[in-house]
Amino acid sequence: MDNRDINLNTNIGRLIIENPIITASGTFGFGREYEEFMDIANIGAISVKGLTLKPRKGNKSPRIAETVGGMLNSVGLENPGVEYFIDKELPYLKDKNITIIANISGNTIEEYCEMAARIDKSRCDAIEMNISCPNVKRGGVAFGTDKDMVYRITKSVRDSTEKPLIVKLSPNVTDIKEIALMAEKAGADGLSLINTLLGMAIDIKTKKPILRNNVGGLSGPAIKPIALRMVWEVAQVVKIPIIGMGGIMNITDVIEFLLAGASAVAIGTGNLVNPRLTVELLVELKKYMQKNNIKDVSEIIGKLEIYSS
């Protein structure tokens, strides 16, 4: 089978992307940082660094700690603000014909809505609403762990924009299915999962946490089994598409997430290990499909065969 016979197009609600490989917000900056390593136009979509209404300095250092099979971060959403992004970064990316997902975070529902309304008038292709960041004191995970709050904030932001709306879910909950259903009910076009798990690392010499924020978000291969399980669980109960993420480092990981029910996958910590990983995975995905005579990526999505009891 020739490469030209392979269809990698996939849909995240009304958002159509040319291939299912996306960058996870917070690990790819605004894209420019990776241009010396690859042609970033080949990526299915870029979810840019998390944006807030006003510029934000983030948390005090140290903000990164490497752990077994992953890393902890407590960056705290350092960013130049949504207006700077729209004025200075977005035109550059769109001139390269890249699909752009604006990742937004806020302290209040009103802040989320105001950002969504501003992005609605921009050339962004979609909005990813982060209600699951564990590294900010207000908003963040507090929104994403209360199912009624998830409904309220998703509905309010839905009413503020015509752009496709993706809600990024927290794994720091008892039952992620009920949170996912609330986001779907409130009008989300798609879901991203999972965000980082809350964790801690300790320096036994100082007897203090390594992170200045004391705790941070755990990402990387260590969380992959949890992410896979949650993607599969959510895919069983919602009708909207899922972007799966959590420790994806190779093509086997990509296929596993697609089989579990993800319509696309986002690469996070893997970008920090290998800055060319996204484009390498795209090549490997085509090879996998050729080898297995798969013409359309949709033939993989959700095709996990589970054992019956």
Key traits:
18% strand, alpha/beta, eight-stranded parallel barrel, 309 residues, globular, 16 strands, single chain
Could you walk me through the main structural features you see in this protein, from its secondary elements to its overall organization?
- This protein has 309 residues and is α/β, with parallel strands linked by helices.
- The chain is 30% helix and 18% strand.
- It has an 8-stranded parallel barrel, surrounded by 7 helices. Strands 5-6-14-11 form a 4-stranded antiparallel beta sheet, with no helix packed on it. Strands 1-2 form a two-stranded antiparallel sheet.
- The chain is globular.
- 50% of the residues are buried.
- The mean pLDDT is 94.
Radius of gyration: 18 Å
What is the helix/strand order?
Answer: EEEEEEHEHEHHEHEEEEEHEHEHH
Strand order of the largest sheet: 3-4-7-8-9-10-15-16
Low-confidence stretches: none
Number of strands: 16
Largest sheet features: 8 strands, parallel, barrel
Q: Between the first and last Cα atoms, what is the distance in angstroms?
A: 38 Å
- Continuous helix count: 9
What would you say about this model in short?
The protein is of the alpha/beta class. It has 9 helices and 16 strands.
